[in-house]
Amino acid sequence: MIKTERILHLKSCRGRKVRVVREHYVRERVPCFSALCQADCDNDGKVLPGDLTHYVVPDVGVVVDYLEILEFRELQGIVFTQTACQAVQHSKGRRQYNRLRNLLKDPRHDCVLFANEFQEYSYCPREKGESQEKWQTRCVYSAAVWYHNHLAGMMDIVMITEDQDAVAQFSSLSSGVYVVSVQDYLSNFWMELHAAHELYNSISQALEEKESEGTEKEYTEHLPSEILEAGIKSGRYIQGVLNVNKHRAQQEALITTQASSNKNTDLSRDVLVYGGKNRNRAVHGDVVVVELLPKSEWRGKVTSLTERQGDEKTGEDEKSKPMPTGYVVGILQRNWRDYVVTFPPREATQSQSRNSQRILAIPWDPRIPKIRISTQQADALQDHRVVVRIDSWESTSLYPNGHSVRVLGRAGELETEIQTILIENFIHVPPFSEAQLKEMPVNSPEKPWKVHPSQVASRRDLRGTHLVFSIDPRGCEDVDDTLSVRTLDGGKLLELGVHIADVTHFVPEGSLTDLEARSRATTYYLADRRYDMLPAVLSADLCSLLGGVDRYAMSVLWELDAHTLEVTKVWYGRTLIRSSYQLHYELAQALLNREDTEVPELAPLSPEEKDAKLAELTQALEMLTHVARHLRAQRDRGGALELEGVEVRAQLDAEKNITALVPRQPLEVHETVAECMIYANHWVARKIQKTFPHQALLRHHPPPRQEFFSQLVDSAKARGFTINTSSNKALADSLDRAVDPEDPLVNRMLRMMATQAMSQALYFSTGAQSQEQYYHYGLALDHYTHFTSPIRRYADMIVHRLLTAAVDLDKGLSPAVALATNKELEETTQHINNKNRAAQRAQKLSIELFQCLYFKERDPQTDPSCVADAAIYAIRDNGVLVFVPQYGVKGPVYLKNRDGEVVTVGQDGRCEWKTGSVKRYSEHISTTCSSGTSTFTLFDHITVRISVQPSRCHADSLNLEIISNKPHKSAESQQPHSQGRSQLVQEVVRQAEEASQQAQERASRGPRLSKEEREFCQSKTPNLYSLLEEIRELALMDVGACRDCFMNIMYTFYS
Ligand SMILES: [Zn+2]
C-alpha cells in the first residue's frame, strides 16, 4: 500500500473555500468486477459479462448530466468510476447520488463501481494548475486504460465524455481505448435505441437553456437547511407534505403535517397555502417548511361542488371557516417524478433561442405546474403526450425547467392514454428481460419439465392419497389454488386441504425475477388488459395447478372433528400434487345439485367406473360445502361484513356467463371456495405470527373512523332506516335490514356509502403494530394474511417464504436465507401497499377512460344511450351527487351554474335553466325562481344526459346534466348495467383498433408504441377466486369500483 496526499477544495456551509489535505492510500489490488479478470480480483457481487463488444466508462460530466441515458437497461458493461460518483454526490446532492447507488446495486442493470482512485496504477494526482474538471477527466481516462490493460487487452473500452478537448487529446493515445462523445457513442453503438437519442437531445437542450437564464427574481429565495431545521425545532416553522387541491390547483394547497413531528399542538390541523407566490416553487408531494401568516390573513377552503368531486372522502362537508394559513420558506425534499405533459398548440410557444423553442408544457396531473421544455420538435409534438422530468426551479423562473424523456403518442388515443395512466401512477411494466427469462425453468415439447427426484424425497407426496381438484371460472388457465377433502379414522375426522402453487420454489429470493416481482408487487388489471407480475411460463404453466399433471404446492391440511368441526391438528408444508379434476363453477354446482352432467375427465371411463368416480367427487364437494357453511357461520357470528352482496346479486339476470360469476346464490360453490381460501389465509397468518412475532407479514383492516359514517347514517335516516355503526356486526345487520322493497338501489347506495367510509385493508409487519391492531374488521378475523395467490401478489410470495422458514424451524432446521428484519419488512409492506393503491387508481382511471371514449363517439342530443337513470346519493351546496347504475358512473349534477341560473322543473318533469337561487338542506336541496320552487331529495331517481367534457391536456371527464326529475325508463335501463359495461369496453377497443388500422394504412403517423408494448397487452384468463376474495375483503375501493374490477375481469375472461 502506498501513501500519497490528496488535496481537496471544499466549500464550507458558509460558502468559504477550504483546502483540505488528506492522506490517500492506494493499493495494487482493487476489484475490477469483470468476468474476464485474469488477475484473480476479489470480485464479490455483480460482475460484468465477458461476452460484450466493449465496456463503457462515462466521464464525470456524463454521469452528472446524462445519468438517465446510462439507466437504459439495454446499455451493458458500464463502469462507473469513483471519481464520477463523488462528483455526483458533490454537485447533484443526495437524491441523485442515491439514484446512482441504487443503479449500482440493482442486478437488473449491468454496471459496476470501480474505485479508481484507490488503484495504484490508475490513480493520478492532480497537477499544479490543473483545473478540477481536466483532472477528473484524466482520472477517468486513466481508469479506462487500466481496464484495458487489466483485462489483458481482451475487452475494448469506450470512454464517453462531453469534453471535446478530451476527445481530441485522448482518442488516439492508446489502442483498444476509445474516447468519444455521448452523441457519437449512441449513433455508433445504439442506432436503434431512439429513446436514448431523443433523451440526449432534450437533456442537452435543457442544459443549453439553463446557461441563458435571466436574473430577475420571481420568488423569494428558500432558506438554508440549517435555518429551516432550527426553525422547526423551535416551533416557528412547520414541516409537512404539500398537497395541492386538484380542483383548485392554482390556489389551494394543504400542508399535511406529521402529527408526531409537530410540537405545536394547536396545529394538529393542516395548514393552507394559498396562491402561487406563497407556494414558492413547491410542487405537489414535496416535503416543505412553512411559516404561518398572522391570524388576520387566515382563510378558509372553498366548499361548493366542482368537477369530479363525487369520490372524495370527507366526514362532514368542510365549512369555509378560516384555517391556519402560511407560506413556504424552504423545501426539505423534492419528490419530483416523471410527469406526462401535453405540448400546447403552436401559438402558445413562448420564445425561440438559437435553434430550439421553449414550450410551456401542461402536465396531465392538474396539481403539477406547467413545465418549461426546450425542444426543436415543438411543431411535431403539438397535442402529443410526452414524459418529462423537472431539472430545476430557480427563484428567477416563473415555471420549473425540464426536459422530455420520451413521446407517448397523440393525446386522446387509447394507447397513449393507457400509457399515461401507467406513468402517472408510477407503474413500470416493461417486458420481462432476457436475463430474467433465462432464470425460468424450461417446459417445451422437446424438453418437458419433470418433477425432480430430490423434490419427491423432500415433499409430502399427495398424489396417491388425496383427491385434489380445482374449481375456477370456465376456461381458466392459471389455477393457483386447489382443494382436497377426505374422511379419516373411520369417519371420526375430516381432513380439509388447501394446496397453493409453490411459486417461491421457482423464484428464489433475490433472483432477477424476484426483484422484478417485488418492484411490481402485483399484477395490474386495467379495463382492457393486464400486466402480469410473473413471466407466463410460471403463471400459466408450471405454477398453474392443472388437471392430470404433477405440480409442486404449498399445502395446509386441517384435521377436523367430523361432528363439531373443531380443528384437532394442522399441517403446513411443501407437497407434490396431481389435480384430478379441473372443475368450473357451474359444473361443481351442478354436481352438488345432483344434476345430470358430464365431467370431461371421466368421459373415457366405463359406466361403472364413471359412476364410482362421480360419487366420490360429489361426496367430496358435499363435504367441502358442509365445512365451508360452518366456517362462514362462524365468521358471521363474529361480524363479518358483506357490503357487496346486493351489488353482485343484482346482476343475476344477465347473460348466463355473468350469472356464473355471482357469488353466493345461486352458486354457493363460489362462497365455498372463497371460504376455504380465507380459512387458509387465516391459519397461515396465525402460524407465521406465532413463529415470527416481530417479522411476519400480515394484513389488517382497521375499523373505520366513526365520523366517516355520518353521511351513511344521515342518508339512511332520511329514508327511515337506522344504521348502527358501533361494530362490524351491528353494521352488517343494520345494512341487511335497510332494504326498500320498492327500490333495490337504496340498499346498494347505502352499502356504497358504507364501503366508502371504510379504511383500506393493508399489509404490515407484526413487529410494527401492537396485537390489537392485527384485527381484520371486514372479515372479522383476529389474524389474516395473503397466502393463496402467489402468482399475482408479491405479499403472498413473502408469506410463502415465511411459512417455509417456520416449517423448517419446527423441524429443527435453520432457514436457508436470513429473514427480513421488522424494519425491512415494514418497508416492503409500505411499498406493496403503495403499489396496490397505484393499481387501484390505474384501474379506476382506465375504466373512466373507457367510459369517456364510449360516450365521445355519441351525440348526447340524439343518441338514446346518452340518457340514463340516476339516483341522488349526496347533497352539496350547488348540486347533488348521483349514481348512474347502467354505466356504473358516479358524479356531480349541478343545479346552479356560473351565470346564476338554476334548474327548475316544469309540469312534465322536464328541467330548464332560469335565473334563481339554490338552498341546501340536510336531506334535500331546493331551487327557487320566478316560476316556483323545485326540490331534489336523497334517493330520488332523475334522468340525466351524459356527455364528455373534453380536455386536451388532462383526462376527459363525463358531464352529467339533469334533463328531468322523473326516473328514466327505457328498454335499456332495465338491463343490468353489467352488460352495458362489458359491451362498452369491447366497443371502445374495437373502435380503437379500427382507428389504429386506418392510421396504419395512411402510414402518416407520429411516434408510435413499440411492438413490445403492444405484445404486452396480455389477455390470459385471470383468476376469478382472487377477485371474489378481493371484493369480499372490501374496503379496497368503493363498491362502484369493485364492481368495475369485477366487470373488467369478466371482460378479459369472456373475450
Ligand atoms: Zn480483475
Automatic annotation (TrEMBL):
Q: Biased composition, Basic and acidic residues: where in the chain?
A: 308-321
- State the needed cofactors, names only: Mg(2+)
Q: Which CDD domains match?
A: PIN_Rrp44-like
RNB domain span: 459-809
Q: Which reaction does it catalyse?
A: Exonucleolytic cleavage in the 3'- to 5'-direction to yield nucleoside 5'-phosphates
Q: Which InterPro entries did the record assign?
A: Dis3_CSD2 (IPR041505), NA-bd_OB-fold (IPR012340), RNase_II/R (IPR001900), RNase_II/R_CS (IPR022966), RNR_Ribonuclease (IPR050180), Rrp44_CSD1 (IPR033771), RRP44_S1 (IPR033770)
> A single GO BP annotation from the record?
rRNA catabolic process
Which Gene3D superfamilies does the UniProt record give?
A: 2.40.50.690, 2.40.50.700, 5'-nuclease, Nucleic acid-binding proteins
List where in the cell it is found: Cytoplasm
Under Enzyme Commission nomenclature, its number is 3.1.13.1
Give a GO molecular function annotation for the protein.
enzyme binding
Root EC class? hydrolase
Is the keyword Cell membrane in the record?
Answer: no
User: Would the keyword Magnesium be found if you checked this record's keyword annotation?
Assistant: yes
Taxonomy, superkingdom: Eukaryota
Q: Which GO terms describe its cellular component?
A: cytoplasmic exosome (RNase complex)
Write out the entry's keywords from A to Z: Cytoplasm, Exonuclease, Exosome, Hydrolase, Magnesium, Nuclease, RNA-binding
Q: Where is this region: Disordered?
A: 303-324, 993-1015
Family indicated by similarity: Belongs to the RNR ribonuclease family.
PANTHER family per the UniProt record, alphabetical: DIS3-LIKE EXONUCLEASE 1, RIBONUCLEASE
What is the protein's name according to its record?
DIS3-like exonuclease 1
**Protein encoded by which gene:** dis3l
